[in-house]
Write a structure and sequence with these properties.
alpha+beta; D-amino Acid Aminotransferase, Chain A, domain 1; four-stranded parallel sheet; 20 strands; globular
């Protein structure tokens, strides 16, 4: 089976990786060559996928088109091309247009009674400000007091209406994916998310440490949202557990990055394979209890002379083409631009254990090996600025 993955950055890397794990052949298309997914694909074509005339001849023989980008113009062109060629298009444009706006998403949550952060001025400081149309943690700003808010609004000038300003909620973050197809909805596995100083996800853990009852509640929330928007595709839902209540931070109706790979290594569930079955064969698998076979750690490291830092996903986006390696300094797998003798490099580490303790013991060994090999004496694992920093002692925990 051939799948055309359109876009080779973070989502494209995830899609290509999972497609290869499912035994599929990957045709990757992007207008740039300096992209993380380049070496993961079987074939690569450098072109603007928004050009229908050029695209038709390139993808006419693939079995599935899988968009992995967030450009509205290109997405609409891809949908039209897929319809013209009668090739399954694994994407829900209508759902994506809702989730692409945090403001529209929040209105949806309010309409169907889904708990979410309150909006300013009906909440107290500190606040979180984020662009309504941006993806994930992009542009997130923490505002601690009235003075911060005043300066922030002044800096935006007439663009304040393009931002969402909400209460900042303390608590751990979690994510879940849900697949939808023709009125059937399939929630997958809950994962734990850990953020860096920029509120960018640096580490995903699966299975989640969330209680069984709250995981069930989270799955119900995800299915409720998916049913409300009649999802035909994949969507991830991110929540924060605040005062023992799950509050939805955002939804994204497209393949997310990071969490699907962690889920795959923990449970064996390959979300891209499930989507291919739905869009090619016209059905979702029957819901069944997901067995959490192993514990997976998925995290990003950034190396510079004398220093190892756990970093958010932004280091992947700017790293250029990545190699997929096994047994990387003791990690089960890695996606990395590492070269022997190179002083500055990054890696996404995939570390698997029979349980949480075993996985973190293995992780500690990986970090020690890398630090020893590269004469590193500074280890940083930054967290959002109001929560301080972990010390070197946290390297193995």
């Amino acid at each position: 089976m051939w799948v055309a993955v359109i876009g080779g950055r973070l989502q494209g890397l995830e899609a290509a990786y999972l497609a290869k794990k499912a035994g599929m052949h990957v045709l990757l298309i992007d207008k740039n060559e300096d992209i993380p997914a380049l070496k993961i694909a079987d074939n690569f074509i450098c072109m603007d996928a928004g050009s229908k005339e050029k695209l038709v001849s390139v993808i006419k023989n693939v079995d599935l088109i899988f968009p992995a980008l967030e450009n509205g113009r290109v997405l609409h062109s891809l949908a039209a091309t897929a319809e013209f060629l009668k090739i399954p298009f694994a994407f829900d444009l209508k759902a994506y247009q809702i989730s692409a706006s945090k403001r529209r998403s929040d209105l949806l949550f309010a309409d169907i009674g889904i708990p979410a952060p309150g909006y300013f001025p009906d909440c107290a400081f500190p606040l979180i400000a984020k662009p309504s149309e941006a993806s994930g943690s992009e542009g997130v700003v923490c505002l601690g007091n009235e003075s911060d808010l005043k300066k922030f609004r002044h800096s935006l000038k007439d663009k304040v209406s393009e931002w969402v300003i909400q209460e900042y909620l303390e608590g751990p973050s979690y994510s879940i994916e849900v697949l939808g197809y023709r009125g059937h909805y399939l929630p997958i596995q809950v994962t734990d998310l850990e953020m860096d100083a920029l509120y960018d996800c640096k580490r995903v853990l699966a299975p989640s440490g969330l209680s069984t009852s709250l995981r069930k509640k989270f799955a119900e929330i995800a299915v409720k949202i998916a049913a409300e928007i009649s999802l035909n595709g994949i969507m991830d839902v991110e929540v924060i557990l605040h005062n023992d209540q799950l509050k939805v931070l955002e939804i994204d109706a497209r393949l997310p990055s990071q969490t699907p790979t962690a889920v795959y290594h923990s449970s064996g569930v390959n979300m891209l394979e499930l989507m291919a079955e739905a869009f090619i064969n016209g059905r979702l698998p029957e819901p069944e209890e997901i067995t959490e076979k192993k514990f997976a750690i998925f995290e990003h490291i950034s190396i510079s002379p004398g220093r190892l830092e756990i970093s958010g996903e932004h280091v992947v986006a700017s790293a250029g083409p990545l190699d997929h390696l096994e047994e990387f300094f003791g990690a089960d797998e890695a996606l990395t631009n590492y070269r022997s003798g190179r002083d500055n490099w990054m890696a996404t580490l995939i570390i698997i254990g029979a349980n949480r303790e075993e996985a973190f013991i293995k992780r500690s060994g990986v970090i020690r090996q890398i630090c020893s090999k590269h004469s590193i004496d500074t280890y940083l694992d930054p967290i959002p600025p109001d929560r301080g920093f972990r010390s070197m002692e946290g390297a193995g925990s």
